[in-house]
Design brief:
45% of the residues lie in helices and 14% in strands. The chain is built from 18 helices and 14 strands. The radius of gyration is 26 Å and the shape is elongated. Bound molecules: zinc ion.
Length: 512
């Protein structure tokens, strides 16, 4: 049995969660579910990145402590992910002094011991709006393009992480290997982007700030006057969640697992460069792969308050009476992994009606009603051609899923639905009688059983309801974390104990 450790980026809870968070968590959840369904041992982690001046300032504005602000907002993230059926095993918070800080401070100390951290006096151009030092390439005519002001010259003491030392090694890591370790970027289009960053040359990275400018963060262990900046604090969540460098360390889901970080394209450089460099110098192995997703626009434009096109995750859930499957379907069906995508209410509603309600929901209903009219029993015939077709379908589906090609896998399952709809219109089972009719309808029911299994990682609840209506005995176990799609389940006619269908009911309600 292989082990999988899959993580998402940790979210910044200075406001409520948005659609970008939803896209990423749904993608990671589908993969985590697929790993479990194929029989892997899985650990799936999400969490929140809670420090920094933005949180500190938002809290001041709202007249509360930073801790109170994050406690209030983190709850919104946890609630949303529960509603979306994100099946995480661990939720890590960077403000957690018991679970997160010991690992972060131990990692810092290790990097200091191997002389990868150096204290320097740093003078730079600081934009207080952006809350960061700006490089010359960030400015337009000496002005911050975001805030339309000239940044101030500021001098302060910082610890720097000496990443420039690793320029050649990081290039090797991403193109071949670094002392035998490899790190794969999926999809390959995102790999080229990252390599081009290395070509520009890597700079050392500011790893801490004076306490006078940043108090809300993890203290630097060797220096009372410094607070860790985001990198060492946030990136370390992936191993603090496993208790690294503590007495409850569990290395099995790192050293003996395939480690996949699912992240957005905006933070690819930190995960592709800083993180492996930190781990290498701390004596921890480099993760296996980075799965990079794109951004979501709304009605063809960047989501922004001023355009009034911000889509709220909870509005979508409400539209479908809390059912998360339509949005899980939409994001997976519409946006190939790695691409940017667009959310449009019109397109969403059209797909819901055409694909889920009509093509799939009505097909299931028609087949079940016709079988019930004949007494409800099913008799699936021995059919070498059906068996061969089904084996081929599963082979193609599984290899798409294994390759993170979720869009193709889902499209294949939906195409199967189209094929069945066409077949039912051609064969006209309602015009038949007796045994011939029951056998033909049973073949349709059996195909729908396979469709439901394929939809299980994408739309778990829908897949379970379809299987319940079909009357298959494993239906009530399908949402358990140890449910595995066995070879027997993939065989056409493989469910020997399946004798009769259940009661049909509407799978997807019409939109009001
Ligand atoms: Zn600025």
């Amino acid at each position: 049995m292989s082990r999988q450790y899959i993580t998402t980026a940790i979210d910044y809870p200075n406001a409520a969660p948005h659609m970008g968070h939803v896209l990423e968590k749904v993608l990671a959840d589908i993969m985590a579910r697929w790993f479990r369904l194929r029989g892997d041992s899985v650990r799936f982690q999400v969490g929140t990145d809670e420090h920094g001046t933005k949180i500190q300032r938002t809290a001041e504005k709202e007249g509360k402590s930073p801790q109170a602000l994050v406690d209030q907002n983190v709850q919104l993230f946890e609630e949303l992910y529960t509603k979306l059926h994100i099946s995480y095993d661990n939720f890590i918070r960077t403000s957690d002094k018991q679970k997160h800080w010991p690992t972060v401070q131990a990692l810092w100390t290790k990097l200091e011991e191997v002389q990868m951290l150096e204290k320097r006096s740093y003078t730079g151009l600081y934009c207080s709006g952006c809350e960061r030092f700006m490089a010359a390439r960030d400015l337009e005519d000496g002005i911050c393009p975001n805030h339309k002001v000239a940044p101030e010259e500021v001098t302060e003491e910082n610890f720097f992480f000496l990443m420039s030392k690793d320029t050649a090694n990081l290039k090797k890591l991403l193109t071949s290997d670094w002392d035998g370790e490899t790190y794969r970027i999926i999809p390959s289009s995102r790999e080229k982007e990252t390599l081009s960053l290395i070509e520009q040359g890597l700079e050392d990275v500011s790893f801490s700030r004076p306490v006078s400018s940043l108090t809300w963060g993890v203290p630097v262990p060797s220096n009372d006057n410094q607070t860790m900046y985001v990198w060492c604090d946030a990136l370390t969540n992936y191993i603090s969640g496993l208790g690294y460098f503590t007495d409850h360390e569990d290395r099995s889901f790192w050293d003996d697992a395939t480690v996949t970080h699912v992240i957005g394209k905006d933070i690819a450089r930190f995960h592709a460069l800083i993180w492996p460099s930190m781990l290498k110098h701390a004596g921890v192995r480099i993760p296996d792969q980075l799965l990079i997703h794109g951004f979501l626009t709304s009605e063809g434009e960047k989501m922004s308050k001023s355009l009034g096109n911000v889509v709220k995750p909870n509005d979508i859930l409400e539209k479908f009476d809390g059912n998360p499957d339509p949005i899980r379907f939409f994001l997976s069906y519409e946006i190939p992994v790695g691409n940017d995508g667009d959310f449009s209410w019109d397109r969403f509603e059209k797909l819901y009606d055409a694909k889920l309600r009509n093509a799939m929901g009505n097909l299931l209903n028609r087949v079940l009603v016709l079988i019930q009219k004949e007494g409800g029993n099913i008799r699936i015939p021995d059919s070498p051609s059906d068996s061969a077709q089904s084996a081929e379908d599963w082979k193609v589906f599984s290899s798409s899923m294994d390759a993170f090609n979720l869009h193709s896998a889902l499209a294949q399952a939906m195409k199967l639905v189209d094929v069945l709809n066409a077949a039912i219109d051609t064969t006209k089972p309602w015009s038949m009688e007796g045994e011939e009719k029951v056998v033909l309808l049973s073949r349709f029911a059996e195909s729908l059983r396979h469709v439901a299994l394929m939809l299980l990682p994408f739309m778990p609840d829908t897949a379970k309801r379809m299987t319940e209506q079909l009357g298959v005995s494993y239906a009530d176990r399908m949402l358990d974390k140890d449910f595995v799609i066995t070879e027997q389940m993939q065989q056409f006619g493989g469910q020997n104990d399946w004798k009769a269908v259940g009661e049909p009911s509407i799978l997807f309600m019409p939109l009001t």
